[in-house]
Amino acid sequence: MQITEKDLLEKLKINFGYDSFRLEQKSIIENILAKKDTLVIMPTGGGKSICFQLPSLFFEGITLVISPLIALMKDQVDSLKANGIPSTYYNSSQSSEEQQQVFDAIANKSIKLLYVAPESLPLLQNVLNQNYISCVAIDEAHCISSWGHDFRPSYKQLAFLKKTLPETPIVALTATADKATQEDILEQLAILNATRFVSSFNRENIALEVRPANDRVKQIIKFINERSGDSGIIYCLSRKATEQLASKLKQNGIDAKAYHAGLNFEERAKTQEDFIKDDTQIICATIAFGMGIDKSNVRWVIHYNMPKNIEGYYQEIGRAGRDGLPSQALLFHSYADVIQLRQFIANTGNREVQEAKLDRMKQFSEATVCRRKILLSYFGELIEENCGNCDVCKNPPKFFEGTVIAQKALSAIYRLQQKEAMGTVIDVIRGAKNAAVYDKNYQTLKTYGVGSDTSWQHWQHYIIQLINQGYCQIAFHLNNVLQLTDFSKKVLFEGEKVQLTTPVEVKKELKTILKEKNSKKSTSDTLFERLRKLRYRIAQEEDIAAYLVFSDATLKALENERPQTDNEFLAISGVGQRKLEVYGGEFMEEIKTFINEKKQGRKDTTLETFQLYKEGFTIDEIADKRNLKAQTIFSHLSKLYIEGKDVSLDEFIEADTLKLIANAKKVLKNEIALKPYFEFLGEKVPYEQIRVGLTILQKKR
Ligand code: ADP
Ligand code: ZN
């Protein structure tokens, strides 16, 4: 059977909801369908999964997906099922009954994809033959290489796959770019002739920004308040810092949790789960967090501390904006961090390499040219144009003649006999009256107080630039004291001119802050916000992550296009056939309600329902009159009931059913999601009844 481009696009739309392929996806898919071994290098969020998921729909047998993280498998399988693609996973924690079901599914060919961890492969030996398996995809393929940053011994055994399944195409996928790792992957998997597809590492939708670390916490609170409801991750260097920051944010009314390797397994799993499901908005984490997370609607990543190297930084910011929507990466740059990282490195094995990497990271942080250029050049990718989406591009530094400033700083270093670190040097220049100064009689020096008209932060900013330009240096081995260099005397004695930049102001005028506050209020009643709430409710009922119902990108498209018919709804990017069938109705209804409300000058929709209810109409009649679903009317009545309005919900539910639900509530320990009830009650009580029952029980309490 010849598969045409039209066939591919059709499946892409029906099963994934997308209208076109991203850059290399189509060529990759065609290569796999031609049964050729394939190596895919694509950045996180680039869209690797579709590369093997879509071909699986055309193959006769199953596509076996090897993935290192059990947590991720469930997410991927949920996502596939939400799109109507039969798939499952196999692991050692399943009961033998469940495992048997998997084997049956393979034998009947009733699933398209099977996810499995490498450790469990030996248990699948009976089905590891070409009658059953049409394709093997190896996700996170760099785990096979000890060159990579994430070597896993269990990946080593994958070498046998090519021998066992010589005719089956093997697809290796990873976001790790470097050449050595690529070669190693091919060699170890014995697929030396694999076609390679290496995509650009540029993630244009992530805006890059670096700020000085003064008042970090205040800056972070403001940053978050300007983005209410958005998910984000804040990376910190230490466990303690994650906890302190999370508690400070909580004190300020922000929904944040800490995550680090010191927490026990259950706590970590719970925190991660809450984040994925949008129950917790913000995670303050050490770098232990993020590996197992596919969440597509992480809108921002903050580095509270500077990362050790650019690889780490790139990987961490890559967790933002997988859905392709505009996202933010904000890095706080502090000299104290650089010094601390250097101390960590001093005690490690390959110190020189690590120091060189830290230096590159530092250069990135202090750059006065497009930051994306620096980032990509680190991975060997050159871009010609400035990106236009980093702080340097948006707000190019303004240079001024800073010779006098440089002279003041350098002569202070000289008068302090090159024995003091930056803090004391600045204190002396600014004429501080503190112990650091008085203990050593520095107030008698000639340069004492010559720079009192300039703020501490500005001096810090200037001195860092002098260091970067080589006019002075930090002696890391001597308690970080500032020292002069050969260049210093050119400035001090030979009339060399120095160019400096002023620090970018992060403080905004009070007026704009107030404006933002007001606009924040009004965002709560946008259509997007309403759709987001609906998505959250549905996800809770189905017990899956919210972004698996629809991505943020799809919600945005729904907000803009406001589809009101099935065809219009299906035309939205991210809506496939199954999602139209399962979710379309409720979302379109919400959109209609929203539009109607706007038309009627925001007459309260719940009160309108109440009015009709009081007039004696039945649920169905009200739904009919209002052009809404009965389900929506129910939820209006529930809301009114909780508010204490005169609504008797009891008439909508049998006493016996209510008893069953009350019992379930006890057994399920007051669970709030509806799905567990549905299952507990043998799938016999409809969701609507469960919802009404729980509302009544809640009120009674
Ligand atoms: P990766 O595995 O490379 O990190 P994913 O496969 O998780 O990336 O894809 C990232 C996001 O991009 C997902 O939300 C996915 O649905 C979306 N995506 C993938 N391909 C397309 C496409 N052709 N059009 C629109 N969105 C896509
Ligand atoms: Zn730029």
TrEMBL record:
Q: Which positions fall inside the Helicase C-terminal domain?
A: 216-364
Signal peptide location = none
Q: Name one Pfam family in it.
A: RecQ_Zn_bind
| Names of required cofactors | Mg(2+); Zn(2+)
Q: Does the keyword Isomerase apply?
A: yes
Please provide one cellular component term from the Gene Ontology annotations of this protein. Answer: bacterial nucleoid
Q: Which SUPFAM superfamilies match?
A: HRDC-like, P-loop containing nucleoside triphosphate hydrolases, Winged helix' DNA-binding domain
User: Single GO molecular-function term?
Assistant: four-way junction helicase activity
State the Gene3D superfamilies in the record.
Answer: HRDC domain (1.10.150.80), P-loop containing nucleotide triphosphate hydrolases (3.40.50.300), Winged helix-like DNA-binding domain superfamily/Winged helix DNA-binding domain (1.10.10.10)
The biological processes this protein is annotated with in GO are: DNA recombination; DNA repair; DNA replication; SOS response
Lineage: superkingdom = Bacteria
Which UniProt key words apply to this protein? ATP-binding, DNA damage, DNA recombination, DNA repair, DNA-binding, Helicase, Hydrolase, Isomerase, Metal-binding, Nucleotide-binding, Zinc
- Does Zinc show up as a keyword for this record? yes
Residue ranges of every copy of the Helicase ATP-binding domain listed in the record: 29-195
Task: Please report the stretch or stretches of sequence annotated as the HRDC domain.
Answer: 521-601
The catalytic activity, as recorded, is: Couples ATP hydrolysis with the unwinding of duplex DNA by translocating in the 3'-5' direction
Enzyme nomenclature, EC number:
5.6.2.4
Family statement: Belongs to the helicase family. RecQ subfamily.
- This chain's protein is named DNA helicase RecQ
Native source species = Tenacibaculum pelagium
